[in-house]
Amino acid sequence: MNTMITAPVSKRPHYSMRRIPGLDGLRAIAAGLVLVYHLIPGRAPLGYVGVDVFFVLSGFLITSLLLVSTLRHGSIRLGDFWARRFRRLFPAVLVATLGSAALAFFVGGDALVALGRQVVGSLTATYNWVEIAHDSSYFEEASPLLLTNMWSLAVEQQFYVVWPLVVAGLAFLGTRWRVGAALLIGSFSIYLHGLLATDNPTRAYMGTDTHLWGLMLGAGLAFALQHVVIGRDEPQRNPLSRAWAGAGWFAIIAIILGGLFLPDSGPMYPWGMVGASVLALLVIRTMLPDVQSGPAYALQKVLGSKVLTWLGVRSYGIYLWHWPLYVLGYYQFPFLNPYVAAIIIATLSIICADLSYRFVENPVRTMGVKGWLIHVRNRVAGFNPAQAITAVGVPLLVVSFAVTGIAIAPPVSSGQAAVEAGKNTQPIPPPDAGDHTPPPGNQTGDSNEGTDPSADPTGEAPGDVPAEEPATPTDDPGEPAPSAPEEPTEAPVEPTLDPTPEYEGTPASWDRVTIIGDSVTLASAYKLQEQMPGVTVDAAESRSIQVATDIISKYAANGTLGDYVVVSLATNGTIHESDITRLLEAIGPDRTLVLVTGFGPARASWIPEANEAIHKCARKHPDRIRVADWHDAIEEHPELLAGDSTHPGPAGADIFAATVRRTLDPNAS
Hints:
By secondary structure, this protein is mostly helical.
């Protein structure tokens, strides 16, 4: 029996929601921005605003449907509403979740990390809160989780549960009060987001309460224009229709160009997301039936084109599939050209979404779950034995592979394990060296280029696991030092280095060497100390070149800066020649600067630029700069890196340390 919440109505004529052309096209554009943003690094820095466009659409459409129910039946039939939402959303989520988990079983390794809790969060519409509780980050790029994109689906699904109750409560108020209530909730959500963004950016971005503004803007529009959206007769033409049409054209162009070209730093977070939500609202307003001027009609025709409509209808499935496929490709083919990978992943996402739509989503939506199951049973009954076995066996295999993947999933990524190993063996830095990890939002160079644009809200650098305090072993002399990770049983790989330039001078002793690095250095800290006893290693996660001069200055101020300063900070963002010039100024004219090149997967598109700047400056200052070419040394041995293709395991750390040692002293054994 349906739960009914009644609204006061005197007449209950047949009301329906008018057809609004072009909204599927807007969905397609929003999905396209998200795909470009995720699949092609740096090509759509603000592309994640596509999610906010989806939120505005959902808030508008769901509120309109609730208003239709109230006007038609005199109540919001909660049971019917929730059942329709379940039929619309859950089948696609179930197929994408289990299908992705089954594929992850074959990829293995880091693709399986935390798979159990991800599947639970995905299937219970709580993914965002599950990951917040585990201190995860949607924006972590070095070791991305398989189902991270489910956070936004969880936000929407939670909205679908609570919002009907709110709409029913607001039914007794006038239009202005309802619009005001929606805007007040949205404004408070922005306020909460800003309050939490500095200290807990992941919580601010993924939280339902802190990312409600788009849903509320859409709801406010539905409240304000109920007479236009819902009714039996065509509405009168809006006298400002031409102005609205111009605003709509401006808005859709601004959404596309802003997502593709605006930076994802500074005021763009969170105001870029808020701005995109307002622009999406303008586009929706232009699509409504009372705006029928020539320019508006032209925009409706563009957004209502067959291609955009076809993609928009399947945009839900495309969004569900694209991220898991990207993650699987990331781990299986880390060095594949990003553009080639993007084409393959986008194509596979569209294929999977179309199959899901035609064989699962649409049939369940029209027949209901029970009707669809009966339909499937009848179809299978007409198959020959081989077809029937295949039809039943394939889904069972998918489930079994998914369950097995959950059972064997590692607790942490191999990259994180490598960093933790280095953490536990890193020597204690000198007094006042301290934690030099920069504040959130300033990890990756002057323009933040090279990061996953979603990473900017969190301030996490892409090449590292989430930022923490730089670990140093206890200084309690009574506590035994932790042991280094066990070496692999196979013979260690001897690094193949390019001929080392004939540098003049070598360290008088290793204690005259100061190494400043990021998590790659941190993962290699014990090997550096082993191969160069007495060397000072100051490494921390999520470091970039931007903090190097401050660290050097502190060592110089307390008299502990070595004669040779090694800087290994090319993992987390681009390095410019101006950055290196500042390093030379910071160490002074009597010291030698050793720059370590970076290495990472093809997605880390900033690393080649950083390496080029390093080599260029070394050629300009051959008497002051040496290059420890970690990139060339490890390029032939990617199997010695963790699953993120960035952090070295024990044998890889040997190569890292040997590369630095030979650059400092070419004659060292």
